[in-house]
Amino acid sequence: MVSHSSPIPLYHQIASILRQQILDGVYPPEHQLAPENDLAKQFGVSRATVRQAVLELADAGLLARRHGRGTFVLDAARKPLRYRFHGDMHDLLTAAAANAHTVREMSLHHRRELPPTVARDLHVADGRGTIVERLMDAADAPFAYHRNYLPDAYGRLLSRRRLKSVGVLHLLNESGVPLVRARQTILARAAEPDIADRLDVGHGGVVLYTERVVRTEDGTPVELAHSWYPAGSYGYTVDFDTIPHAETP
């Protein structure tokens, strides 16, 4: 069962339990999961916590939420279609600068406790770092909600005043931090209640979610960013070219 005293979020504990049960065959493919209210009673948590766990497993390709029917187990061997593209770091910095919008709400805090998975990915041993949260507007409507996590050594380079007009990557680059590599993942997912409220999309509404990790040349993680966009406010275009291989002399 789950531990309410553990630093690991309850929803993640539940997701881990259900994931293992699926992989062990306790819940075979096409098995219908119990309703969220029943699972909430079983684990002694709120329905919102169960829903967050279910969304995590759906994103991992282990569950499918079928409208009007319920939540079903997928074949563990099935994975969401994922494609990987390569781009230039300069393009990412340019795009980040070009997409500046009006900041409606902003907070910057140092020495804050980070989610365990974030602390692990940022290699922060004591589990504390800088958290930046910004709600962005475009044409007086919510455009994006950004949550950036940084080790405090890099977070101290940021200022509230500058964050009202430029982004985190711009400030790090301006401060001389060698931003050499980044990986950004883009997914469509159902909005969690707090995100839905911020973006005014309605609970369960579809949002575009991005997760980005930026590193220095030696692989040191500098920033982990989570962003949510209302459907229709964010577009992503990829150009493909045929590049001939260089001839061997």
TrEMBL record:
Key words of the record: DNA-binding, Transcription, Transcription regulation
InterPro entries: Bact_HTH_transcr_reg (IPR050679), Chorismate_lyase_/UTRA_dom_sf (IPR028978), Tscrpt_reg_HTH_GntR (IPR000524), UTRA (IPR011663), WH-like_DNA-bd_sf (IPR036388), WH_DNA-bd_sf (IPR036390)
One Pfam match: GntR
GO biological process: negative regulation of DNA-templated transcription
SUPFAM superfamilies: Chorismate lyase-like, Winged helix' DNA-binding domain
Lineage: superkingdom: Bacteria
Annotated ranges, domain HTH gntR-type: 8-76
GO molecular function, one term: DNA binding
Record protein name field: GntR family transcriptional regulator
